[in-house]
Amino acid sequence: MPDVFQLSVDESLDREADRVRSLGIQAVLLFGVPASKDETGSENYAENGIVQQALRRLRGRHPDLLLISDLCCCEYTSHGHCGVVRNGSVDNDATLEILARAAVSHAAAGADIIAPSGMMDGMVATIRAALDGAGYADQAILSYAVKYASAFYGPFREAAQSAPAFGDRRQYQMDPANVREAVLEAALDEAEGADLLMVKPALAYLDVVRAVRERTQLPLLAYNVSGEYSMVKAAARQGWIDEGRVVIEALTGMRRAGADAIITYHAKAAAAMLAQQAGQ
Q1: pTM greater than 0.85
Q2: Is 200 marked active-site?
Q3: Is 147 known to be catalytic?
Q4: Any idea where the domains of the chain sit in the sequence?
Q5: Using an 8 Å Cβ cutoff, are 143 and 103 in contact?
Q6: In the chain, where do the E strands start and end?
Q7: CATH homologous superfamily for 11-279?
Q8: For 184-199, how does the pLDDT look when each residue is reduced to its tens digit (9 = 90+)?
Q9: Residues 250-278: pLDDT tens digits?
Q10: Which of the following is catalytic: 37, 200, 233, 268?
Q11: Exactly one of 37, 147, 233, 268 is catalytic; which is it?
Q12: In angstroms, rounded to a whole number, what is the distance separating the alpha carbons of residues 142 and 68?
């Protein structure tokens, strides 16, 4: 992805955090790419895992920065699936045990919001119980409640080396043709105790953002994913579009559809453009 980089937990992370705060961005979402991966994704809950290190460093440098940690196992597993694989498929209940351990580990390291993204049944209730039991009742849960089995994730999977080694993720991610299931999934996660909900991807799913928005009062986020970002960057580099205008127009569309907040790789550029417009 152009202008997007993996960051080591050192001065590189410090500089990025300083830049983010200087632009007025109030929150970051962390993904970990560990030095080694195994079948269960154990680095996800390791005390000194890569995300845990980053959380502690960011918390010390910018105490006011809202820290959100992605909880999916796919970046940590050797097979690239979002949970424990048994007999060729993901074992939902075994994966819940991993997610519970990881959630407590991330909260202990300083995460304000835990963001489970694996689309496992019962994940929100399991994580809520684990956090409460470990004394982290104030940590919120941002559920990837509506996550489609999308081709738009390609650039991220390459960057995180998290593409499935076999099969695909349609066992647990949603059919792009189905909007009614999106409403059901969001309602189930809300009932289990989610504090915020998400629709992912965003641009091709604005109708889904609207459908979920009309049925919940919880804060709703749209995730402007890697493929959506990369298409804009590629077209701009060819001179086919005005990148700045397209970025603001796309993000405005997500807000108009009902998103209260947006997760996007355009964040720094968009914040700079909006600040410039405000100063004119």
Answers
A1: yes
A2: yes
A3: yes
A4: 11-279
A5: no
A6: 27-30, 66-70, 85-86, 89-90, 113-115, 140-147, 196-200, 220-224, 261-264
A7: Aldolase class I (3.20.20.70)
A8: 999 999 999 999 999 9
A9: 999 999 999 999 999 999 999 999 998 88
A10: 200
A11: 147
A12: 8
